[in-house]
Amino acid sequence: MLQIVLRFSHVFFGALWVGMMAFQVFFLMPALAEAGPEAGKVMGALARTRIPIILPIFALITLISGFWLMQRLSGGNMDAMMRTAMGKAFGLGGASALIAFLIGIVVMRPAMLRSVKLQESLATSGPADRATISAELQKLRARGNVFGKVVTGLMLFTLAAMAVARYL
Ligand code: HEM
């Protein structure tokens, strides 16, 4: 029963985590960039949804169930499992997802929340402040773009590794 609960949580929330990230980075961010100043409203509305809370929770469920499954699969002998191709694939995939999560929490989440705040302050600021705020927003967006691609790349690697690990 525990195995079923772990596998369900792992695959279900893992799929949502990687799917939501890929959608944001490959479709939503380019669309927002194209929308220009109009994008501010959408970004603000998005930040007010539960995404900034839901996504890290989905990620944590996936990570915890993943490391737990890994430990169960090894039968207590992690060294022996890491010498098999399957063990390496689950291990490397897991490490890649962990790094993606850390970058997401340490770099991307604060940058996103900060850019929403800046965007909102843009409406009430004077012309002098507006230029500095716009410049900082530009920088934050560029950074978000790069890190978003790195994080999603790492997660797609995880997905690929998880998909084939058992058959290596
Ligand atoms: C983006 C994150 C992740 C996604 C989308 C994902 C996806 C998947 C999928 C689809 C499977 C089923 C594969 C199969 O049964 O053949 C799976 C299994 C597994 N995953 Fe992940 N995974 C993620 C993160 C992790 C992490 C961080 C670990 C930690 C090491 C991990 C460890 C495992 C293990 C050990 C299994 C095999 C479970 C079993 O014994 O049946 N995964 N994962």
Explain briefly what this protein structure is:
By secondary structure, this protein is mostly helical.
Attribute tags:
elongated; 168 residues; mainly alpha; 0% strand; binds protoporphyrin IX containing FE; single chain
What does this structure look like?
The chain has 168 residues and is mainly α. It has one domain. It is built from 6 helices and no strands. The protein has helices at 2-35, 39-48, 51-74, 78-82, 85-124, 127-164. α1 (2-35) packs antiparallel against α6 and α5 packs antiparallel against α6. The longest helix is centred in the middle third of the chain and has 40 residues, at 85-124. Bound molecules: protoporphyrin IX containing FE (HEM). Residues 7, 10-11, 14-15, 17-18, 62-63, 66-67, 69-70, 73, 90, 93-94, 97-98, 155, 158-159, 162, 166 line the site of protoporphyrin IX containing FE. Protoporphyrin IX containing FE binds at residues 7, 10-11, 14-15, 17-18, 62-63, 66-67, 69-70, 73, 90, 93-94, 97-98, 155, 158-159, 162, 166.
